[in-house]
Every structure is written in C-alpha cells, then in structure tokens.
Amino acid sequence: MFKIKRTDLAVEFAAELSEKGIRMTEELQNGVKATCVTVGKQGERLIGKPAGRYITIHCENDPDKENKASVSLALAHYLNRLLKPVASRETVLVAGLGNEWITPDSLGARTVHKIPATAHLSGTREFGELGLRPVAVLEMGVMGQTGLESSEYLHSISKSLLPAAIILIDSLACSDLSRLAKTIQLTDTGICPGSGVGGNRTAINKYNMETKVIAIGVPTVIDLDSIAESSGEACMVTPRNIDSVVNGYGEIIAMGVNAALNPALSREEAEMLLCR
Fold first, then answer.
1. Which of 47, 54, 164, 207 sees the fewest Cβ atoms within 10 Å?
2. Is residue 79 part of a domain?
3. pTM of the model as a whole
4. Exposed, middle or buried by CB within 10 Å (0-12, 13-18, 19+), for 214?
5. How far is CA 126 from the centre of its chain?
6. Count of CB atoms within 10 A of residue 103's CB?
C-alpha cells in the first residue's frame, strides 16, 4: 500500500505514482532544471493533494551561491504560465504567510517585504509612464498573532480588492533530505497553511477565494519520522544556515514575482518604490 508522506511537495510522489493519475515531465528554463507535475483526480485521491499543476524548480546550490538572476527568471516564466489567462493590467494580491519571528516559517514575510506595492499608485504619472500592474502586498502573520483564520482574513480583503489572482508565499515541509532548501514549488492549487507540519488550517484556494490562487514555497523543514516513531513525538529539522537560506530564497522569489507582474520595472525602480 502506498504510504502518504508528510510533505508539501508533489514531486516527492510523482516518481512512485507516474501511472496512477500523476504525470511528470522535466524541463530546462534559463539553464535551470524544473519538474512539472500534473495531478489528476485519481492522483488526488491517492496522495491527498489537490488536483492541479505543480512546478518544482531545482536549485543545486544554496541560494546565497545560486545564480539568482537565472532562477528568478525561471520562476517568473512558470509563474506567468500559471497566471494565464490573467491580463497584464489586472490587479494581483501577493500575500506572505507564516510567522516572521520563527526563522524557518518566515519566508512569506521576508519575501513580501521585497515586493513593491503599486495598486495605490494607479492614476499617478509614474504608474502610467512605467506601465505598471496594480499589485497589493500583504503580510498575513499566523492565527496565533492575529486571532484570525488566514483564509477568512484573506477572503475579506479579496472581497474588497477583487484581484484577478492571489499569489501566496509560504514555507513548506519535505520528506527527502536532498530537496530541503534546494527547491521552489509553484502550484495553482493554493495551499493549506501548516499541513506539512501537521497543522489543520483551512485551505486557501480558488474555491473559497473565488479567484485564481497560486502558491509559491520552499521546503525549510523536514519531518524525521523515524525519530518521531521511536520517541513518540513529532520532530522537524531545519538547515543550520536557515537564516541565510530564507533571506536568499526571499530575494529570488521577490525578483521572480516582480519580473512576472511588472516586467517593465527595473530592480532599481522596484527598490525605489519600496523606499517610498
């Protein structure tokens, strides 16, 4: 019998279930390797992950040593693929999930700090000159900080803003040590906050948000189930250099999101908008 793994990465199931409702292909984009997994209804029942598209970008080195430009351009390419048919001038909401004060869980917060909001500039001279897309940026926090279910909080904002798409950024969990802090996953299925570490929060997806939802994440923890079984307690492990890992991936993802949403905006212009 197939054993369900505690992981957020669809690619960790793909090799085992390639003929059971899961299709996997390999691609090379800007010199960066990517694995594209499509989960059908049969695969959804087998692995407990929503049907949809999952794209895993493979990073051979630590993000502070990685060619950030190549990886971020590959991320922008795949993000644009998942965003279709959202038009280039339609509003997009980018939300960072997780707890900023817990380093392995801080990817969402650290990333959105590097993504300039442009929705409030609509109608201004520079907005028209630069050909910007309206982008709203939100740091969500976690339920223990806000007292609110993330899905409820986000839905209330979405009802007011009416974005054409929501992009979520969050830390993930994996079950294969070779993928820990070495991959970026993009998916059009949304996300269930905390599911990789045994959490039980409401999913954030196109059904309850009533708009397209794309999730981007990096596995920053791994479940050591062998230790957990012997001790009777769950044990999650994170890399020793997790602070630089999260900062590095935060920069890569922010660069990729900026390139996908506002390609006319240079890195210097993006940094200028962040300082406003």
1. 207
2. yes
3. 0.91
4. buried
5. 29
6. 17
Q: How far apart are CA 61 and CA 124, in angstroms?
A: 42
- Per the rule left: phi > 0, alpha: psi between -120 and 50, beta: everything else, 178 is alpha
| Inside any domain, residue 2 | no
What is the token pair recorded at 236? Answer: 């999650």
Whether 260 is covered by a domain: the verdict is yes
Domain assignment of residue 210, yes or no: yes
For 164-180, write each residue's pLDDT tens digit.
Answer: 999 999 999 998 888 99
Backbone conformation region of residue 253, classed left if phi is above 0, alpha if psi is from -120 to 50, else beta: alpha
Q: Which two tokens stand for residue 254?
A: 């922010």
What's the number of domains the chain is made of?
1
Q: Which two tokens stand for residue 253?
A: 């993802």
Paired tokens of 142: 């976690």
Question: Which residues form the domain of 15?
Answer: 11-274
* CATH code for the domain of 85: 3.40.50.1450
Q: What distances in angstroms separate CA 161 from CA 118, 120, 122, one per listed residue? A: 13, 11, 13
Lookup result for tokens 């630089």: 244
